[in-house]
Amino acid sequence: MLKIENLHVHYGGIHALRGINMEVADGQIISLIGANGAGKSTTLKGIMSLVHKTDGHVEFNGTDITKFQTRDVVKQGIVLCPEGRRVFPDLTVEENLKMGAYLRKDKDGIAKDMKWVYELFPRMKEREWQLAGTLSGGEQQMLAVGRALMAKPELLMLDEPSLGLAPLIIKDIFAIIKEINNSGVNVLLIEQNAKAALEISHFAYVMETGVITMSGTGQELLNDDRVRSAYLGE
């Protein structure tokens, strides 16, 4: 599925990613956890070619996508749902969802996926003609995930989907992530809420200052004393 080898990214004089190696296997939810500034979001941006990679390789389904433009990465089947939701505030819920399908030409498929997104997020169906900017934070996050799904990704990358949300909404979001994965979409998840992320992850990586320092199954990392002390508040 996705394979990252020796990936380096610099921001001016800052060495943000220092030769990371990681994989996303088919059918799985993979989490990347770590403190703010560790390089998690930069990793996703590097995969999407939103930042310049100074060294290393990114391979997806056997194709080297290291030097692909972002649009071509999306065409390969990788979609990023960014931190901060980034919905189009002056467009309706339905219009935002259709924007997610802007590269697609299959009208029947788009209609089918729109129906599926509304089944995943019934609240979006209730508000399909409402302007996205008037939605609550939790509703905007649901819309952002739904919009990403409208691109029909093989790999959905989620950057801090629970950030700033109430506990009940967070529970809903993680249940939906599991449902999305069960439907056949692979997930690469970045989360400050390490416990919730590890609980639903098949495999996970820990990142510190641009380096992968630990990896293992979600359960292994949940039970690791170093992870519990650093990220789970125990």
Query: Approximately what portion of the residues adopt beta-strand conformation?
Result: 25-35%
Give helix and strand order, one letter per element, not per position. EEEHEEHEHHHHEHEHEEHH
Distance between the termini: 34 Å
Strand order of the largest sheet: 6-7-8-3-9-10
Number of helical regions: 10
Rg result: 17 Å
Q: How would you describe the shape?
A: globular
Helix content: 25-40%
Secondary-structure-based class equals alpha/beta
In total, the number of strands is 10
Low-confidence stretches: none
State mean pLDDT (0 to 100 scale): 93
The main sheet comes to: 6 strands, mixed
What are the salient characteristics of this protein?
single chain; 234 residues; alpha/beta; 6-stranded mixed sheet; 4-stranded antiparallel sheet; 10 helices; 10 strands
Fold and architecture overview:
The protein is an alpha/beta fold. The protein contains ten helices and ten strands. It has helices at 40-47, 70-76, 93-100, 107-120, 122-126, 137-149, 167-182, 194-200, 218-222, 225-231; strands at 2-11, 14-24, 29-33, 53-60, 63-64, 78-81, 155-159, 186-190, 203-208, 211-216. It has a six-stranded mixed β-sheet with strand order 6-7-8-3-9-10, with helices on both faces. β9 (203-208) and β10 form a beta hairpin. α3 (93-100) packs parallel to α6 (137-149). The longest helix has 16 residues, at 167-182. The model has no long low-confidence stretch (mean pLDDT 93).
